[in-house]
Here is the input.
Amino acid sequence: MTIGNRVYLKRPAFDAALRKEYEQIPVANIADTMNRIAVLGNGIRLLSSPKKPIMAGFAITVKARAGDNLMLHAALDMATENDVIVVSNEGDRSRALMGEIMVAYAHCSRKIAGIVLDGPVRDIDALSVLDFPIFATGANPAGPFKEGPGEVNTPIAVGGVAVCPGDLIVGDADGAIVIPLGDARAQLEKAQAYSAFDAGKVEAAKNGSANRQWVKKSLEAKGVEFIDDSWR
Here is the structure.
């Protein structure tokens, strides 16, 4: 077994129906029930225009050398409709990891659920209007190398968050989040309940029935001084 130059063909078993459930829950609601520490950072954001507002799928992880996409090609040939390909890139921004041709293959031929890159894409004019979820750090016209080394379906770190093969990835216009596979079922119930609660808060904010007493109580608890006068 060669560390840094290997492809695992299998991942932990997952329930495909779980993906459909998570396609109904905004990432912000999931994040709030996970103590707000599982959202991908480093500027990873939605760059395309999918008709479905929420992407969900199980991670095929790719550990790539900076600016190299050989292992990403390997992952594309393994992926199915339940999968989101997630690619680490050593924080590199100097080369795009994929462009219109590879994305067309992922979307039209493999029909995968989405792609998350800790790096740039290119052909942004074409990708920005595509009905397919692409999360990346931006655009760069410089193309990638295809030399390796790298790994598929081993643990990686993307956007400051650990991602293991089979973890559930959910993304929307706010960003993307990682839910460990072993926690996904229990977390779903929490996220569904919180999403319903949050919708009620939105409605209350609209109709004027929101309870704002907590603001003053919080300020008072922190010792904020209220002065019945203007500043001089």
Residues 5-194 form a domain with the Glucose Oxidase; domain 1 fold (CATH 3.50.30.40). Residues 12 and 166 are 6 Å apart (CA to CA). The chain has a mean pLDDT of 97. The helical segments are 16-22, 27-33, 70-76, 100-109, 124-128, 184-207, 213-221.
